Amino acid sequence: MNPHELVKHALKLLVSKDMSAFAGLWAETGAMEFPFAPPGYPQRLEGRAAIQEYLRGYPDILDIREITEQVVHQSVDPEVVIAEFTAAGIVVATGRPYSLRYIAVITVRDGEIQHYRDYWNPLAAAEVMGNSDELPTAFSGGAHD
What we know:
Elements: H1 3-15, H2 19-23, E1 26-33, E2 44-46, H3 48-55, H4 58-61, E3 62-74, E4 80-91, E5 97-109, E6 112-119, H5 122-129, H6 135-138
Parallel strand pairs: 1-6
Antiparallel strand pairs: 1-2, 3-4, 4-5, 5-6
């Protein structure tokens, strides 16, 4: 699967709430980074198992119902794409609407994600979630910095 196909497939898995298959797209030694992570939130996850654990409870926090404004840009490196998308749905705990824009720089090699750098806005996420104090614990997933 080329990087463009993999990103589109990953977003479909996110909407279908198949977090095990979503995490399964990472290479065994792949990584996920959050450069704008707030204090208490993991900044880097190493390995497919850590990513799978982190994502395990995601559908219990956010009910993502659609991906809108999806664009995948090819970088000069054929293994690297930049994905821009908006995830929309419901915050499970509050029933409030959720809509947040994401930008991710994704390296794909041999059909697997080697590196996923997620540039999301934690302040906007906290506002949408309804409580900025809950954000770090909501997505901790047992992961550690």
